[in-house]
Amino acid sequence: QNVVRFNLFGHVHKEIHNTVRAVESNKPIGVNIWTGAMTPYSDFPAYPSFRRIIVDAETMLPIKLETWTIDIEADDPEFVFNHELTEYYGMSDLSPSSFDALAERFLNDEELAVKYIQTWNQMSPINRPNVCDADCRLEVYCQTTNSVYWDAKRCEGVQDK
Question: How high is the pLDDT of residue 1?
Fold first, then answer.
């Protein structure tokens, strides 16, 4: 049986993810994973970064997702390990249900939601928020639990036009 395990995307200049859901049951069945870019982006300052994905050799399921960044303003810039996703967020694994559980935690845990937002720009000190109120946490939750734009917007309370 052929199954899509996860989807990888790049060049959005943000490190983000969201859950893919089954149409009828709404069950989490996949994960879309975006990574930052190697080039900094002036409208959303970010450190250049890349991700290393470690997969299980037998199942081909991802088991580790590392982010490596470079501070381009450092005297001697070099890529350094920044974080591994499961350790960073306290997740048991990289399964769709674990990403779904993480999103639920974003709703009630401001510190965790701030950690997520800070990874958007690969920990660059520029544009690095330290707060995420209830509206912000709802937005993070909705964006991470929906892979369809209007589903995320409806979750946030925005109606179709």
Answer: 45
The vertex-3 CA angle with 2 and 7, nearest 5°, equals: 135
Q: Return the DSSP state at 51.
A: E
Residue with tokens 């701030």: 114
**What digits encode the pLDDT tens for the residues 34-43?**
888 777 655 5
The position carrying tokens 């250049």 is: 48
Helix axes of 134-145 and 110-119: crossing angle, nearest 10 degrees = 60
In which order are the strands placed within the sheet that holds 80-84?
49-55, 62-69, 80-84
Q: How far apart are CA 53 and CA 156, in angstroms?
A: 31
Helix spans in the chain (H): 85-89, 96-108, 110-119, 134-145, 149-155
Between CA 122 and CA 67 the distance in angstroms is 8
Q: How confident is the model at residue 127 (pLDDT cuts 50, 70, 90)?
A: low
In angstroms, the CA 10 to CA 136 distance is: 24
Give the pTM: 0.87
